Amino acid sequence: MLKNARFLDWTVYQVYPRSFKDSNADGIGDLKGITSKLDHFTELGVNAVWLSPCYKSPNCDNGYDISDYRDIMDEFGTLEDWKEMIVKMHAHGIRLIMDFVGNHTSTEHKWFKEARKSKDNPYHDYYIWSKKPFGNITSVFGGSPWEYNEATDEYYFHTFAVGQPDLDWENPKVRKEMADIIDYWVGLGVDGFRCDVLACISKDLEHGKIDNGPRLHEFIKELFGRGSLKDIFTVGECSYGEEEICKICGEDANELSCVFQFDHFSHGRTFDKFEKRTFSYDDIKNDISRWQYFTEKNNILYPLLTDNHDQAHFISRLGNDGEYRYECATMYAAMFYLLKGIPFIYQGQEYGSADPYYDSIRYFNDVETLNYYKEKSCAVSNEELIKMINFGSRDNTRRPFCWNGGKNFGFGESEINWIDLHSRGAEINLEKDKSSEKSVFRFYQKILSLRRDCPAVRYGRFADATQGKGHFAYTMTLDGESVLVVCNFDKRKEISGLPQYDYLFGNYNSPRKPNGIYAPFETAIFKV
Fold first, then answer.
1. Half-sphere exposure (Cβ direction) of 402: Cα atoms closer than 13 Å
2. What are phi and psi of 57, to 5 degrees?
């Protein structure tokens, strides 16, 4: 029996609050804006929201640098706004997953402000210090991970930006503080946590390791393995092999509900996320199939996702966001969200949002992107570098949500927004998509309705039915009920050898048989 099988009934929608809906015309999305759009979630068919960080922050890294874990960022509203939002979410049947950022704080957090004053300060040991830099390590955002602090004549360690000093989880006081923070939000009604860069809380800096240190499982179990949290959903942003995954969320584990797997994200680019390379759709399919079999064998929950706030749009990077944008977006929806697991949908996916394009670095805001541009500007021509920035920037999925074709594409009424609007907003927006004959939103509704109404999709056994290359066909089967999903890739192709099921729907809107000629990015769903 799959542990935590109840979470298979969840369909999660990720909200990046800064870019979702601006309610007060200041150019920044906010909590009241989210509350005003709860009907959008229920209309789509999701029943949980993962809210990217909304805590107090100076926004060195757009909220992932927290200065107060128990309060709300001024731009987003107040704690009372948050409380009103969660009450109304629950009234709509929507659960709330908060983002837990435990590896680091902001340099503006009271702990760090005190810690940097003197070595004798009681908060000094909350962070990682060294008399001088050591280890062959580079910050994730580029440059040295060590920053000098004059008052103590030491260097503090930051895995990410200079404004994000790493906490020292070896200190039991830090672990107790983090547990208290989790309990605080659970006490306010939170249903789960997405755990940011969780693997980084245990390190081995002497050997150049910034994550997956020797005490990682101990620390996670101490935080989330407590009996009071047994009904709380947890998903970790971690990079694990199969053995480690079994330890962290297998049948006998007592750490997390599940962890994200990003193998399929690695295609189409080099180790440098800004550098494009050729890819094979079959490789993406093989990753998905492998993880389906692995999680089935080991009774592990599998998060299903293509997009989030840290990646360029999947259909732009690993698909076709031009002539076949609708077909590609809907094919990937069927390919991922009818599998066994927990769907995670990022804002904008439901109307086929794609990457924008800009001709200057001035249109970008992301700290990782700006650091990369600065680092590469002497080695790469500006024209080529801007192409790379457009390809890999996290800002691709952080532009304001395009609700319609009106002012600011419906995001809000401000004359200036926190970041430039989506360059394709007039072409690609929710209102226009809903009124289109080819509506990505309506297709998502069908996918999520089938998932909700068909136990075979949520709880069934996966089987890869693919015959050859250039497509993906799979079945989900439970108690005599079976669903067949056929996803053709980018070229017109004849598919054969599939069982004869009855047609339900597809993205070319023409009833058909499972075998036969498939158009580029055509998907069809069948049932018996």
1. 27
2. -165, 145
Give residue for tokens 């890739």.
489
Q: Where is 434: in which H helix or E strand?
A: helix 430-434
> The tokens of 384 are what?
């080529």
The beta strand positions in 16-151, using DSSP E, are 48-51, 55-56, 68-72, 95-100, 129-130, 146-149
Secondary structure letter of residue 419 according to DSSP: S
Alpha carbon separation from 303 to 5, 44, 360 (Å, rounded): 13, 19, 36
Q: Report CA-CA distances (Å) from 40 to 54, 121, 345, 512.
A: 20, 49, 13, 32
- Grouping H, G, I as helix, E, B as strand and the rest as coil, residue 483 is strand
Assigned token pair, 367? 């700290």
Q: What pLDDT, on a 0 to 100 scale, did the predictor assign at position 253?
A: 87
Q: What is the pLDDT of residue 2?
A: 75
Q: At what angle do helices 242-249 and 216-224 cross, to 10 degrees?
A: 30
Residues contacting residue 165 through CB under 8 Å, at least 6 positions apart: 104, 105, 107, 112, 127, 128, 147, 156, 157, 158
Three-state DSSP at 494 gives strand
Tell me which amino acid residue 278 is: T
Judge whether 288 and 304 are in contact, CB under 8 Å: no
List active site positions. Answer: 196, 237
Query: Which residue stretches of 225-297 are H helix?
Result: 242-249, 281-297
- Residue 391's CB: how many other CB atoms inside 10 A? 19
Taking the model in full, what pTM does it have? 0.97
3-state secondary structure of 194: strand
The residues that bridge with 520 in the sheet, in sequence order, are none
Longest dimension (CA), the chain: 74
Distance CA 177, CA 105 (A): 12
pLDDT means per 10 residues in the chain (528 residues)? Answer: 87 98 98 98 98 97 97 98 98 98 98 98 98 95 96 98 98 98 98 97 96 95 96 90 88 91 95 96 98 95 97 98 98 98 98 98 96 95 98 98 98 98 98 98 98 98 97 97 98 96 95 98 97
Closest CA to 63 of 396, 411, 436, 366: 366
Please tell me the predicted confidence (pLDDT) of residue 260.
95
